[in-house]
Amino acid sequence: MSGDDDRDCLGRLRDMQREAAEPGGLRRLLARFADEVCGSAALFDAAGKPIASAPDRTPPAAVVDTARRVRLGEHRSVVERDGHDQVAAFAISGEPDAPTLALAGSAIDRFTSEPRRTDSLRVLALTWKAQHAHERSMLVEAANDQVREAVLHLLMDGGLATAHRTAEALGDALPDPMRVWVVEVGAIDKGERDAIADELIRITDGRAWMIKCPVYSGHLIPAVAPTSHEEEQACLRELVAKANADIGRISAGISAVLPLRDFPTGYQQAFHALAHARGNTERFATFRRSHDLAAELAGRGQDWARRVLAPLEEFEPARPQDPSRDDLRSTLMSWLAFHQQATRHLKIHRNTLSGRLHKIGSLLGRDLHRLPDQAQLDLALRLHGGPEAPRSPRDIDELLRGEEVRRWAEVLIAPLRDSPRLVETVQAWLLADARTSLAAESLGISGAAVRKRLVSAEQLLERSLLNSPSLSYDLHFAFRALDLTTGARVRD
Description:
By secondary structure, the protein is of the alpha+beta class. It is 56% helix and 10% strand.
């Protein structure tokens, strides 16, 4: 071989290596081979399924048949004529599962000459191995994410023992006690969210058990083993600074330290803290105001809750294909927490969600699209399962008339008291079933103005209003309880 030929081969090899390293390297190489033979190129897997081709179309029957003969081990390579063109097929390596390259064109000799063929097949084999390894890695990562999402569902549904066993199968024990973080990544690009997840695990020295939120695509939900306040603040500052430098603004809400069994409470606390974090300079916030109506009612609301939920708890499906009691209960919980996003949380079609909500509403005699009914069902679920009380309230109003509930309501609403306009807006929004457009109509202002006021209320209350899980249920009860003590008329 002459010096010019050597330089040509080296130049072609460098070009192939550069193309192989770029995105879509496998298709780029096939396109190069197709150009060289003045025809087409296709790569078949060990089962004979096309992996890629150039041009991007179904390979001709002659090409498929020639590749099959090589794949079945009849020959290591085949070169034959098909009309005016030649057809060739080659095993790209000696490995049993290696793909087969098939070519068709009028200039096959350009490819089959040595060392061009050897160089081409070697680069193609390495590119395929890299892509195959990447695809397998992506499958493993996706499976890991699905298992972690399953652990999230178990924690939210109270399946603590199963959650522990599932997490241990990944070799990554759940922290107990823990803080729940909700980290909101401004960009929803999967790679950027994954980069923030990796960074969070690094700066917490592996104390974060990471879950990618199935409802909000830009959210991460790590359960983090608690540490000192100073260390935690340092981690948060480093995370925000790193994200701002590399990706863009992020926000983080953090729950109080809780036992793992209280993960649902921790999630709601962190979600509320996130609403406050969006509006402060540090871009992170810890949940501080622990006003829990269910805790105030402990010991005297459980029997009311059981009566409210009894038709659902006693439900038995008439047909095997009908949703079970557990299906309906989990659907109700997801709807109350996430509303229309429940389809993403439960991985069901919107028509399935609608059908289940209609069934639940019929069983319980409630309109699941109205805020007062939603609030009562949410409270009943929070109270359900506690011990019997000696005397149980007959209805929700009797339950809310207690002095302890009035104090709870005053404390909850206190941050809004210096802004009558915000109080008016929040009340109008609640009366409109948390629908911004209806609240705007009743107030005679624009929907944008209502949203702006509600964002201001979020900052004062340090809770989420516009995004679910929302404080709307507790605010409904707080205003209702205060109205009851003054004898005002409350809408049911």
